[in-house]
Amino acid sequence: MKLLTLNFLTCAIKTCKTNSASFPLHPRDAELEIVEADVNLPFLKNILPRLMWDELRGICTELGLPELPATPPTPADLIQPSSSTPETTDAAPIAEADEEPSQTAKDLHRVLLETCIQEGKLVCGACEHEYAVKEGVANFLLPGHLV
């Protein structure tokens, strides 16, 4: 389960729906795995405004991952500045495919898309209910008395 997924999950118990402490779910006893993948700049630029940055920073801290900056990067921060200037003034703008990811983009990609929780638990901050994660899949089925 990629860490990006935690940005969209909340506790499934009905009484937690209105409690702000039910988001985000907190990883406990997590075994992490890094799954290498190519950096996808267009995806990172599109997901950036949807990230709950403070919560993501908290999850990284809980997992012992490198600390993220206090403020979210802008899409421009994700692109490596070009060291060469265009030879002609009427040159077409650089296509997205030609953009090189900055170190910020690589770090964000590493945290969101390459870092996966393979085993462990996700714990609600409101009710302390634990959702098991096995083989990278979280089990959100609730026992009958909690539905």
Automatic annotation (TrEMBL):
<feature type="region of interest" description="Disordered">
    <location>
        <begin position="69"/>
        <end position="103"/>
    </location>
</feature>
<dbReference type="InterPro" id="IPR039127">
    <property type="entry name" value="Trm112"/>
</dbReference>
<comment type="similarity">
    <text>Belongs to the TRM112 family.</text>
</comment>
<dbReference type="InterPro" id="IPR005651">
    <property type="entry name" value="Trm112-like"/>
</dbReference>
<protein>
    <submittedName>
        <fullName>Trm112p-domain-containing protein</fullName>
    </submittedName>
</protein>
<dbReference type="GO" id="GO:0030488">
    <property type="term" value="P:tRNA methylation"/>
</dbReference>
<dbReference type="GO" id="GO:0070476">
    <property type="term" value="P:rRNA (guanine-N7)-methylation"/>
</dbReference>
<dbReference type="Pfam" id="PF03966">
    <property type="entry name" value="Trm112p"/>
</dbReference>
<feature type="compositionally biased region" description="Low complexity">
    <location>
        <begin position="85"/>
        <end position="95"/>
    </location>
</feature>
<dbReference type="GO" id="GO:0046982">
    <property type="term" value="F:protein heterodimerization activity"/>
</dbReference>
